[in-house]
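Structure in, sequence out. Go:
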């Protein structure tokens, strides 16, 4: 597998998925299928990589945890302000009912708009999309930490021509 040049196989020799038959008839016996194959191993690695947390995810979780308490405190302060002092500032015509109703509406608006859920969901979603797009292009990344490090890469060097060939000795930049 991954040979840079075609390799002759004798009867009884093992061939891998993706082998190219250059001439003659070929009869093969499947010895491993599904999840037991090399492709099954790759699928397992991709699933494992997508479930790993990126280092930035830990930071986001920590910030979101503190941010949640801050948002709740601001929401509570808004409720207290508008249910007591705010009723005196804003004319009754703008309050749409009672001062308590306005205070509840404004404090709930703060909770909805400043909810840290988006912050907590955006990072794992971005990692999932990044590793999935990489996999569709043939690039397997083992989790978000590798994806983060890969963003700084500006040069890739391949160590063997077999990774670039398609059954013929040919490589492209």
């Amino acid at each position: 597998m991954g040979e840079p040049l075609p390799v002759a196989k004798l009867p009884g020799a093992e061939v891998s998925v993706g082998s190219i038959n250059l001439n003659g008839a070929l009869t093969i016996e499947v010895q491993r299928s599904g999840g037991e194959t090399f492709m099954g191993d790759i699928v397992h690695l991709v699933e494992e990589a997508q479930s790993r947390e990126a280092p930035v995810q830990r930071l986001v979780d920590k910030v979101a945890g503190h941010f949640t308490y801050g948002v709740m405190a601001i929401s509570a302060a808004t409720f207290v302000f508008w249910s007591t002092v705010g009723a005196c500032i804003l004319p009754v015509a703008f309050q749409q009912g009672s001062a308590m109703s306005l205070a509840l509406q404004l404090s709930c608006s703060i909770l909805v708009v400043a909810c840290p859920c988006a912050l907590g969901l955006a990072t794992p979603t971005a990692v999932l999309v990044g590793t999935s797009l990489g996999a569709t292009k043939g690039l397997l990344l083992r989790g978000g930490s590798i994806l983060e490090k890969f963003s700084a890469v500006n040069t890739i060097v391949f160590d063997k021509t077999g990774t670039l060939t398609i059954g013929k000795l040919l490589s492209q930049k």
